[in-house]
């Protein structure tokens, strides 16, 4: 394969990426900060699952992969001939060094420590010696590998509630289950019946497969699966959907039960408290890397 490396100002990132993918038969296009690893490097991100606020940096490096050198070179010639692309520069046209992609991907996912004894471990790793509760999970299409602070905070909270889960919090609802990691975590810590729901059918499938691989029983389905009241309702989504879901999620919390919410940035605490105030008094329970865990118990 051949790689065409281009340098583009912010205004050209979107049209050039689209031309590469849609008309010039690039196999993939990646965009990086041309100032990466210098003092001028700038973070550029939106909330998980949401588009970034801007399509590119002041100056971006675009790397497009092509099957052959001829395709890569033709793409460069055609792009440079466009009158709207005068500020585009070709930096390189080079063969791509063969890599062991499986090994490279695997090396990026190591076991994740939730507590000293509770770990998330990819299938190609041995669990650490001190691990007592282990979720075996490989990166897949659905969100939730344990590497995101919001997931880790939920799992830490679940681990702390293990005695209550085993003693009587017999039903748990994981709303927005993704890979099913929270549902599996609750089941491993003693919850007897766990319902996991998501609007994404791929997440439902992934949850069922991951639960089976971990030897726990989880009922997974679309949101209609959630019925009645639960002693524990977990939802790691994002602030905006969490605000819309407030009456529904609170309606699933049994008297004396707990609601735990994640996917919320520190600066969003007050808007979440206001949105849930008619039903439950949310408090901040934990925080990590700018994200907070919020929760409340129903009287
Ligand atoms: C941030 S992921 C969390 C996954 C996992 N529970 C975790 O803690 O890592 C959020 C999940 O919520 C799902 N979701 C988003 N909006 C939803 C909604 N209105 N109802 C149910 N699920 C929703 C998404 O499809 C996604 O799988």
From TrEMBL:
Enzyme class: transferase
SUPFAM superfamilies: S-adenosyl-L-methionine-dependent methyltransferases
InterPro entries: Ribosomal_L11_MeTrfase_PrmA, Ribosomal_PrmA_MeTrfase, SAM-dependent_MTases_sf
Protein's cellular compartments: Cytoplasm
Chief place where the protein resides: cytoplasm
Catalytic activity as recorded in UniProt: L-lysyl-[protein] + 3 S-adenosyl-L-methionine = N(6),N(6),N(6)-trimethyl-L-lysyl-[protein] + 3 S-adenosyl-L-homocysteine + 3 H(+)
GO molecular function: protein-lysine N-methyltransferase activity
Residues annotated to bind S-adenosyl-L-methionine: 151, 176, 198, 236
Cellular component per GO, a single term: ribosome
Keywords: Cytoplasm, Methyltransferase, Ribonucleoprotein, Ribosomal protein, S-adenosyl-L-methionine, Transferase
Protein name: Ribosomal protein L11 methyltransferase
Annotated source species: Ideonella dechloratans
């Amino acid at each position: 394969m051949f790689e065409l490396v281009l340098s583009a100002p912010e205004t050209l990132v979107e049209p050039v990426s689209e031309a590469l993918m849609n008309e010039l038969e690039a196999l993939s296009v990646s965009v990086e900060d041309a100032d990466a690893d210098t003092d001028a490097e700038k973070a550029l991100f939106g909330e998980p699952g949401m588009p970034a606020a801007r399509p590119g940096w002041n100056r971006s490096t675009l790397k497009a992969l092509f099957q052959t050198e001829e395709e890569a070179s033709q793409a460069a010639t055609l792009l440079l001939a466009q009158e709207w692309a005068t500020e585009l520069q070709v930096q390189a046209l080079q063969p791509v060094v063969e890599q062991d992609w499986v090994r490279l991907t695997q090396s990026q996912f190591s076991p994740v420590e939730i507590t000293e004894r509770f770990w998330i471990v990819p299938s190609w790793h041995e669990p650490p010696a001190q691990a007592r509760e282990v979720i075996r999970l490989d990166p897949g299409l659905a969100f939730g590998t344990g590497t995101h602070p919001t997931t880790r905070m939920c799992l830490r909270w679940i681990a702390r509630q293990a005695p209550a889960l085993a003693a009587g919090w017999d039903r748990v609802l994981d709303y927005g289950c993704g890979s099913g990691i929270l549902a599996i975590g609750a089941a491993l810590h003693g919850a007897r019946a766990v319902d996991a729901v998501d609007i994404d059918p791929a997440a439902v499938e992934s949850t069922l497969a991951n639960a089976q691989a971990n030897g726990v029983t989880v009922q997974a389905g679309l949101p209609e699966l959630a019925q009645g009241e639960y002693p524990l309702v977990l939802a790691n989504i994002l602030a905006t959907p969490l605000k819309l879901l407030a009456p529904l999620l609170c309606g699933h919390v049994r008297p004396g039960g707990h609601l735990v919410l994640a996917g919320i940035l520190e600066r969003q605490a007050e808007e979440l408290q206001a949105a849930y105030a008619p039903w439950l008094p949310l408090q901040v329970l934990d925080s990590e890397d700018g994200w907070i865990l919020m929760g409340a118990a129903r009287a």
